[in-house]
């Protein structure tokens, strides 16, 4: 009997040691999100809750920042290992940031919209000379408003662009009538529209070739733990596949993370899900538009060699 008990205990110990996803076998990976409130960054939370990163040997430590600049600073300071941010943040690499893009996360900027007051401009043509607020000068939101002006034939400065920082302050300014419109994420726009406090005027569906979001890894992580990057990207793209196939579960988790009405998140899902990349490969045409935007925004004096700012070596397809 003792021998049988000992044998069963040994078998149990062996089974536990071989079980996938054991906590002690996981490697910690510190991952940052450029902002906490964007639907496009919720795959990190969904992948964590569904266990897709653990399946690839990773224990994710998540941190949210107040913009790309703060997140890039954290990567430079070795406070995080990977970051989920904007395509325009690739310009930080040209300026010396010790990171590299390792996957295109999302293409067209379907997440964003220009909203106006309920009694504000009725058409895009009426935005000429109007005050539209953005987060910061040189940001993606700034470029999108400038590009809207350019495409209307008014040049890049045909709309009065007002950098105003936090979204709460921008919404308050719109309510007071200090500005004519705000560029914001679509879930917030839908929420304000549902409440009758604003109206969506401009979507950016015409920008088919663009790189809105990129996944970054620090040079230190690339050199020391390349397998962690591969594991993260496998978990990420498995999450994207899950999101496409499971709208109800995706909406439920995202509504909790973003603390918004599930109906608004459901509508956001329909608007935004097409922009996600399924394989992480960088779109050359999108990169070309992005490179030119650096010059337009005076972020860089000339368009950089974009091929030096990213690598596709860690993508799941690269291992095949």
Query: Averaged pLDDT, please?
Result: 90
Supply Rg: 22 Å
| DSSP E strands, number | 10
Total domains, how many?
2
Which consecutive residue ranges, at least 5 long each, have pLDDT under 50?
Answer: 16-23
Portion in beta strands: 15-25%
Structure characterization notes:
The chain has a five-stranded mixed sheet, with helices on both faces. A five-stranded mixed sheet has the order 7-6-8-5-9, with helices on both faces. The protein is 41% helix and 18% strand. The chain has twelve helices and ten strands. About 2% of the residues have low confidence. The protein has two domains: 190 residues, D-Maltodextrin-Binding Protein, domain 2; 92 residues, D-Maltodextrin-Binding Protein, domain 2 (3-Layer(aba) Sandwich). With 320 residues, the chain is α/β, with parallel strands linked by helices. The chain starts with a helix and ends in a 24-residue tail after the last helix.
List the helices and strands and how they pair.
Layout: H1 2-18, E1 27-33, H2 42-50, E2 58-64, H3 68-76, E3 82-86, H4 91-94, E4 99-106, E5 112-116, E6 131-134, H5 140-151, E7 160-163, H6 167-176, E8 181-185, H7 186-194, E9 199-203, E10 213-218, H8 219-224, H9 226-245, H10 247-258, H11 262-272, H12 284-296
Parallel strand pairs: 1-2, 1-3, 6-7, 6-8
Antiparallel strand pairs: 3-10, 4-10, 5-8, 5-9
Helix pairs in contact: 2-9, 2-10, 7-11, 10-11
